[in-house]
Design goal:
With about 475 residues, this protein is α/β, with parallel strands linked by helices.
């Protein structure tokens, strides 16, 4: 189909999850596509061969040189803005889009009515919230999908054969940085904590990119009452006339907020006479698991769904139907009166803080790659909940030192090993420290790549070790 891309010379920066679909879509629209990629490994060569068979030009091992004649760059979200490729593009006046920006601009190109986007970002909880949101929308009978940073291509959703009524879209700070035209129906920033600062350059730049999700919102900007920075981003956003600020809180909600009252999730935002009235949405027990940070996720998802006109009954039914992904505060087993919980996805201090807050008496398994993080604030806040700690991984000394400063009475086992078998020993040591009624919690506050392929493998190792305890 004829489009603005027909005959245009477009460079796609990066192969992988976003680059390959972008190259295929642009080629199908008649663009002259060149893909550049830093790597030249076997996977890249396989992807390159697939694209070259279609007539796409691929340059492996050189992601820094701007191809001659380039009129537009579509980049993988993780490529840093400081790369020489983008410096050259800026000097040549060549615009740079991400795959999200491309998807946004392609909506409706085939003549179908574009599906509105309900967008979710934040430092932690994005995937869970967007999956909850999709479950609620489906319970309302709407054709929808959870897409974006969750690992499902937005380009496929926008250009594929399936027609959607609405999309639940997870967006990372990287994706938002490269998506200047995005205008969601409604959006939320769940929380803000230092993360990816090596990419963004500063906390201010990171927050500003997160805040882009609110730009141009039509109906609601949903923010976290407990995280003032998210409300500040709403105040700074240029939204459409009539768009409302809607807060979510674990406390009793005020007008234009969703919150919790006597074990119920309630809405005082999308009701008539919100000064006096509230609508029951669900019970706290309908949220799986009902940990505080996950209840906050559920309220944010409910806020976006309600902004789209979804009924209270659908919110309840959607939350009941939702099953969280593995390694997100997942109960593995009870052994000798001790609960074992896998939150391997807690790869930074902010996520781990929420995880530790969910339990009263904890034997904490932590450690890995710190990524520049410090642990004093985390340990000081959790000290009263800690029965003991078992430390693993390359940067465990940073956590051990924070424990010595802020929780000196807490017994610590420091495992001086970084092989995958260390997890079995860690679980055995945690069992020795735990008492009936305690929770042994894997919430590492660190990345996993020093010992494991990813956080999934780390969580699987923990679950296997727990199963061996109960055998």
């Amino acid at each position: 189909m004829p489009s603005e891309f027909t005959g245009k010379h477009v460079t796609v920066a990066g192969l992988g999850v976003s680059g390959v679909p972008a190259a295929k879509v642009l080629h199908g629209l008649g663009a002259h596509v060149t893909v550049v990629n830093d790597g030249d490994d076997e996977r890249a060569r396989t992807q390159a061969a697939e694209l070259e068979a279609l007539g796409v030009t691929v340059r492996l091992g050189d992601g820094d040189t701007l191809p001659e004649g380039t009129e537009l760059i579509v980049t993988a979200p993780g490529w840093k803005p400081t790369k020489p490729l983008f410096t050259a593009a800026g000097q040549a006046g060549v615009p740079v889009w991400g795959d999200v920006e491309l998807a946004w601009r392609l909506r409706g190109l085939d003549g179908r009515k574009p599906a509105p986007w309900l967008a979710v970002t934040g430092t932690n909880g994005k995937t869970t919230t967007v999956q909850m949101l999709a479950s609620i929308l489906k319970a309302a009978g709407l054709r929808t999908a959870a897409v974006g940073n969750i690992g499902v291509s937005l380009l496929d959703a926008v250009t594929g054969d399936t027609e959607y009524d609405v999309l639940a879209v997870e967006l990372s700070s990287y994706q938002l940085h490269w998506a200047p035209s995005l205008r969601a129906h409604s959006a939320t920033v769940l929380n803000l904590a230092p993360d990816h600062l090596d990419w963004h350059g500063s906390m201010e730049a990171y927050a500003a990119d997160k805040g882009r999700v609110y730009e141009g919102n039509r109906v609601a900007c949903v923010y976290n009452v407990a995280d003032r920075a998210t409300e500040d981003l709403v105040r700074a956003a240029d939204v459409e006339e009539g768009c409302r600020a809607v807060g979510f809180t674990l406390g009793t909600p005020g007008p234009s907020q969703l919150g919790v009252v006597e074990g119920l999730l309630v809405d005082r935002a999308f009701v008539e006479d919100r000064q006096k009235n509230a609508q029951e949405l669900a019970e706290v027990s309908d949220v799986n698991p009902p940990a505080p940070h996950n209840i906050a996720n559920a309220l944010a998802a409910a806020g976006l769904a309600r902004a789209f006109g979804v009924s209270a009954a659908a919110v309840r039914d959607g939350l009941r139907a939702f099953t969280p992904d593995a390694h997100r505060i997942a109960h593995v087993a009870d052994v000798d009166g001790v609960a074992y919980v896998d939150d391997s996805k807690a790869t930074n201090t902010h996520a781990t803080e929420a995880s530790l807050a969910a339990y009263e008496s904890i034997v904490w398994i932590a450690g890995g790659l710190a990524k520049g993080a410090t642990f004093d604030e985390l340990v000081a806040g959790a000290a009263k909940r800690l029965r003991g700690a078992v430390l693993i991984g390359a940067d465990r000394a940073l956590i051990r030192e924070a424990l010595a400063r802020h929780a000196p009475e807490v017994p610590v086992v420091d495992l001086d090993r970084t092989d995958t078998g260390a997890m079995l020993q860690a679980v055995q040591e945690a069992r020795r420290l735990a008492r009936p009624g305690d929770t042994v919690l894997l919430a590492p506050a660190c990345a996993s790549m020093d010992m494991f392929t990813n956080y999934n493998q780390r969580g699987d190792a923990f679950a296997q070790a727990v199963r061996e305890l109960g055998a």
